[in-house]
Task: structure prediction
Amino acid sequence: MTTTRTPFARLLAACLGALVLSATAASAQDAVDEAAAKKEGKVSWYTSTPIKQAQQIATDFEAKTGIKVELFRSGGTAVLRRFQQELEAKKIAADVLTTSDPAASNVLAAKDTFVAFKPKDFDKVPEAAKDKDGRWIGQRLNIMTIYARGDKVTAADLPKSWKDLLEAKHKGKLVMTDPSFTSLQVSVVGMLAKANGWGFYEKLSQSGIMIVRSNQQVSDAIKRAERVIAVGALDSYAAEDRAAGHNIVTIYPEDGTFIIPSPTAVVKGSPNPNTAKLFAQYMISEAAQKIFPKDGGYSARSDIDPPDGSPHVSKIKVIPVDYDYLEKDANAIKKKFAEIFQ
Result:
């Protein structure tokens, strides 16, 4: 027997279907009260995002919303140190925290420091670059590799692996950041030392390697030819320098490259909770995410292309990062590094 729906029944079914679709869409993202955010009028952002990109994100957000961004920008370790000091003193000043240390973000998330928040486009960020409950979400992907001055190091002499850096021909030519100041380097040092033993870094210290605080200082040393090979360095600086006309060659080591997300989190109990959510949501919008590839970096979103001339992340051999190990041993890693390179 065939049942024919009346016009009313068809209309009712269509309305119910629309309600189901609406509910599904709503469940995929958490609501943001934009009117309440505009009443708050400002957002305090602690970040280790490269300064040019941080300033552009802040400026564009202010232009779009009329909400003032109060920016504290420093190295990842310094940002975390300040945030944790304020947290311990129960004087929370940051609304949004962006670092380059997923291990530290996991520790803070486990202590209920962050608001579980899944903004619009949360699904566009791969699982490996976010907390499944939304307690943090990757703002960008950091490609940590080796790069060199192509006009100062011949193609035959370029290191092809991490262990190649120990060869005598590279003595006096290397530069890298200190993990006590650059949190991205904690992951690189921790995992290379775990895989190769601390003897790798003891031998590297004998090469006369220059140790600096920031990736900007690494870039500057390479451009000035004070050193010609960057070790475990952030490749977005290399890509930006290439775009500016410098002869910079990126080496993706045969034994693998590190890809580390930069977590952004909404701070629980912050002064401006609504602007915090609105700003965190803007951070993974298409407009904000396209800023990174333009400056040689990688977006956290899977639907945005890599920077010009750089491979897609799926084409890069990746060294897995054990964040559980880093959570437990980060301080020991920094201490051991300091003992070797003092």
Remarks:
- The chain has 13 helices and ten strands.
